[in-house]
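Regression test attached.
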Amino acid sequence: MKTSLGAKTLLYPAPVMVVGTYNEQGQANVMTAAWGGIACSRPPCISISLRSATASHAYIVSRKAFTISLPSRAYAAQADYIGLVSGHNHNKFEELGLTPVASTLVDAPYVNEFPLVLECRLVAIHELGLHTQFIGEVMDVKVDKMLVTNKRRVNIEQLDPILFMPDSGLYYGLGTLIGEAFSIGKELVQHKDKA
Amino acid sequence: MKTSLGAKTLLYPAPVMVVGTYNEQGQANVMTAAWGGIACSRPPCISISLRSATASHAYIVSRKAFTISLPSRAYAAQADYIGLVSGHNHNKFEELGLTPVASTLVDAPYVNEFPLVLECRLVAIHELGLHTQFIGEVMDVKVDKMLVTNKRRVNIEQLDPILFMPDSGLYYGLGTLIGEAFSIGKELVQHKDKA
């Protein structure tokens, strides 16, 4: 039996994305966003949605670029801090002792201490209401070498990403492996084919 | 030290969303999507990105509506199956013994057995390349009564959502609680204010 919770954005989980930009003076800024996701496979695009009141909103429009740095669980407090204070009056890199690295592909910095980084070129802006959706084409992904498997994939458990739960406002870690996609459902397909 | 993995959509984690639609004959269909996320808070909007080759793509364009049903971990094989076969030649509800429920708010069905449902009205279509991004305004969220806390929030651990890991193609479960958002970073703020 289901009950109504009203019109809300209850989609679980949301990623914890630290968005890197340059301000008007070329100073590196970061903010934490959870509204967004993968938007297209070819060209590879992701979306992030920001309120126009944020400092980063204007910086992305101005530089037509941003990065996404994914913090591991060890950096959860830092990621939360980055979402608590504004780039309008805080130098968050300096305050947290984090290292901005200039992307050589797009006009934006990323967080050296965070294990995985997407360097994005702004390709579209969609005004949706309170939030503006930015579509970024991923020009490259950079990841800590020790997290790359021998199949050139990301070791997810070592990446140890943070998950955000909308409405309840809780961060969770990654749990246990359930199985392989495009695989664990095959038994059901074969079963049906036999029937 | 970071290494380049090339231009890919490596954003972790992605949600596992089962998209409900009606086909031309009014038969309920579902497909599994992981490209998407929350897009706007007011009005509450989510985005999903589908290839035009999918059956659901045409159904969403035609009916201007879709639902998102979030499977719990217990339904991981079913969710995978729903992503393996096409609505063009499969009645997935029937094959899996799942129950379509007609939304009374939008022209689309949802999966009764899955614990959380978003009923969405199509408000925008963005052609991004291989994928089309659909923006859906969330008209209501329906959730299994037993999952609602006394604060009218979703009990995330009981919801037990599935997480998809792009590229590596693995499903994971939810891990342990890290802490409260807009809270665990406060200690760092106070520390800075004192300094």
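Expected vs. actual: identical. DSSP finds five helices and 13 strands in chain B.
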